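Q: What residues go here?
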């Protein structure tokens, strides 16, 4: 979380796709998703979803919400990213709109955390409805014909700007970068990579 001068907000937030390196961080939030190539990098088949909105809540507080989801899995990645980005955007804004104290930073952080957890469980139910011959078993999705687990999912990275403060939340390796004038981009998120020793230990707990 960081306090940001409001007039700089639209210039300094960058959410990156794992297919791009930090040298591409100067590209805008939308350029990554409009162009099939950036700096010679060819994008893979698109399973990404993007959400961006600036609006005023019922109490006239201005909010900017940006979300990127990068789906993975050969068959169902796009379903995952599309569902999760809609679930996160709808429910984060709904919770903020019903909040009585938007100056409580801990409460806003809890809104993001709880909505991420809820999205996981709702995604599993959604996929079970969308995929024929599937069932939920031990918190995972299984193909009833082959008895194998169905692979698919999505990263999710959220940047929320409210009351001159920036909140970030993420699951996966879609990075959120703070772009600073005449300085290197500052990564605000921690990648969830099973090849990382810290992440491996967290998963094994």
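A:
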């Amino acid at each position: 979380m960081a306090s940001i001068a409001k007039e700089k907000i639209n210039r300094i937030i960058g959410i990156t796709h794992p297919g791009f390196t930090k040298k591409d961080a100067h590209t805008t939030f939308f350029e990554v998703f409009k162009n099939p190539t950036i700096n010679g990098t060819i994008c893979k088949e698109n399973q990404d979803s993007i959400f961006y909105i600036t609006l005023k809540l019922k109490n006239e507080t201005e909010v900017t919400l940006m979300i990127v989801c990068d789906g993975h899995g050969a068959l169902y990645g796009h379903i995952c990213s599309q569902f999760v980005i809609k679930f996160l955007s709808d429910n984060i804004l709904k919770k903020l709109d019903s909040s009585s104290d938007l100056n409580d930073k801990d409460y806003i952080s809890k809104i993001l955390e709880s909505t991420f957890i809820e999205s996981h469980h709702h995604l599993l139910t959604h996929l079970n409805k969308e995929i024929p011959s599937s069932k939920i078993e031990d918190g995972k999705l299984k193909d009833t014909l082959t008895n194998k687990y169905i692979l698919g999912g999505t990263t999710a990275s959220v940047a929320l700007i409210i009351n001159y403060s920036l909140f970030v939340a993420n699951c996966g390796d879609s990075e959120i970068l703070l772009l600073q004038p005449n300085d290197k981009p500052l990564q605000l998120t921690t990648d969830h990579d099973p090849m990382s020793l810290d992440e491996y230990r967290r998963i094994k707990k």
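A: Context that may help when evaluating the design: The first strand starts at residue 2 and ends at 3. The chain is about 30% helix and 30% strand.
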